TrEMBL record:
Molecular function in Gene Ontology: acyltransferase activity
Protein name per the record: Minimal PKS chain-length factor (CLF/KS beta)
Stored InterPro entries: Beta-ketoacyl_synthase, Ketoacyl_synth_C, Ketoacyl_synth_N, PKS_Beta-ketoAc_synthase_dom, Thiolase-like
Enzyme Commission number, as recorded: 2.3.1.-
Family stated for the protein in its record: Belongs to the thiolase-like superfamily. Beta-ketoacyl-ACP synthases family.
SMART domains: PKS_KS
Keyword set, alphabetical order: Acyltransferase, Transferase
Pfam families the record matches: ketoacyl-synt, Ketoacyl-synt_C
Domain Ketosynthase family 3 (KS3): start-end pairs: 9-411
């Protein structure tokens, strides 16, 4: 039997990183735009979405799925799964994982998604109601389903290890990475993990219109301004990030570059849109994550904020950071790069994790685009990136249905 101590010693090292985002296809492009604070919010131009009250979002452009994914997979999958498969390929290439030499049962897959395959589903439903059931494609039954990405990534890669799908609102992106870490501790050699979303198709936007937290601003420069007096909600986005999470000992024996470690995780639930209560819930999630990581509050060098852009939620988050980190909470650099390219639901925190790992690697904290005048007691990094020596990062996420999650990341040189 594996002891609790030996299980805990199976560190979860991030050896691969793949990103498909509005501000860049591929890790290098994503990081360059994130570091420089280049903005990518614009009028949503997807056909059929022009007249909705939600006008501004972050769209992935310049991504050709046909150049990265085989036709037989393309025809049976939605755009959100295209993002997952492409970013998984990039992550596996980055990790140089020797999958041909590994048991297929040693490699798992776990993803999160909230919106599912809205574009694919809308097209097939239009066929159903416009022409009849004979015109509905056979893949409708699986392509719209939020589990499609885990299934297709595992089938395509031949991965038969522990696979899972997390359905936990926007915080699911962090939950998926925590699930991957748990699988490593339980014996898996590697897990491909992350989240992707493609929720800017007409059907998906209509499903979101009931959210009061969604920004209705018509000017990209005013659409997503968290922690300011002008905050009016968040701008939606799309894209995703996938990571290869590998058992630390195996990664070190391979001599592969380790981008960082998933060191601690915590989660709580405080109820839908109860933003005042989220203060207590988020603070508790942070405390649990710190304890799990055996990390003191003052060791946190940078916070990647949830940054919902709703005044009550922003206030609750700022107070939660101070509650959990003490006096250090008002001094630690805080950032929210997603204001420059949109909040991609479950994928938002995984993109934050990607940015946090790159921030520690390149020794700089990226800025929070568009935001200038902060009205909370936070050291929010604005206007331009800030040189720093971050070794430990805290990534926060909250879902509109009340989930709160916190993830502690250690840099490759950090003690784990």
């Amino acid at each position: 039997m594996t002891s609790a101590k030996s299980t805990r010693n199976r560190g979860a090292a991030v050896t691969g990183l793949g990103v498909i985002a509005p501000n860049g296809v591929g890790t290098d492009a994503f990081w360059k735009a994130t570091r420089e604070g280049i903005t990518f919010l614009d009028r949503i131009s997807r056909e059929g979405s022009e007249h909705f009250p939600v006008r501004i979002g972050g769209q992935v452009r310049g991504f050709d799925p046909g150049s990265m994914i085989e036709e037989r997979f393309l025809v049976q999958t939605d755009r959100f799964t295209h993002f997952a498969m492409a970013s998984a390929d990039l992550a596996l290439d980055d990790a140089k994982l020797p999958v041909d030499d590994m048991s297929p049962f040693a490699v798992g897959v776990v993803t999160a998604a909230g919106s599912g395959g809205g574009e694919f589903g809308q097209r097939e439903l239009q066929q159903l109601y416009g022409k009849g059931p004979r015109y509905v494609g056979p893949y409708q039954s699986i392509a719209w389903f939020y589990a499609a990405s885990t299934g297709q990534v595992s089938i395509r890669g031949g991965f038969k290890g522990p696979c899972g799908v997390v359905a936990n609102d926007e915080a699911g992106g962090l939950d998926a990475l925590a699930h991957a870490r748990r699988s490593i501790r339980r014996g898996a050699d590697a897990v491909v993990a992350g989240a992707s979303e493609a929720s800017l198709a007409p059907y998906s936007i209509v499903c979101m219109l009931g959210w009061d937290e969604l920004s209705r601003a018509r000017d990209a420069g005013r659409a997503y301004l968290p922690f300011t007096e002008d905050a009016c909600g968040f701008a939606p986005g799309e894209g995703g990030a996938m990571l290869v999470v590998e058992e630390e000992g195996a990664a070190r024996r391979r001599g592969v570059r380790i981008r960082g470690f998933i060191a601690g995780y915590g989660s709580t639930f405080t109820g839908p849109s109860r933003w005042e209560r989220s203060r207590e819930g988020l603070a508790q999630a942070i405390r649990v994550a710190l304890e799990d990581a055996e990390c003191a509050p003052e060791e946190i060098d940078v916070v990647f904020a949830d940054a919902l852009g709703v005044p009550e939620a922003d206030r609750a988050e700022a107070l939660a950071i101070a509650d959990a980190l003490g006096p250090h909470g008002t001094r630690v650099p805080v950032t929210a790069p997603k204001t420059g390219f949109g909040r991609a639901h479950c994928a938002a925190p995984t993109l934050d994790v990607a940015a946090a790992l790159l921030s520690m690697e390149h020794r700089v904290v990226p800025p929070t685009p568009y935001v200038t005048d902060v009205c909370h007691d936070l050291d929010l990094v604005t206007r331009s990136s800030r040189p720093a020596e971050p070794r430990t990062a805290l990534v926060l996420s909250r879902g509109l249905m009340g989930c709160n999650a916190a993830l502690v990341l250690r840099g490759p040189e950090g003690d784990y």
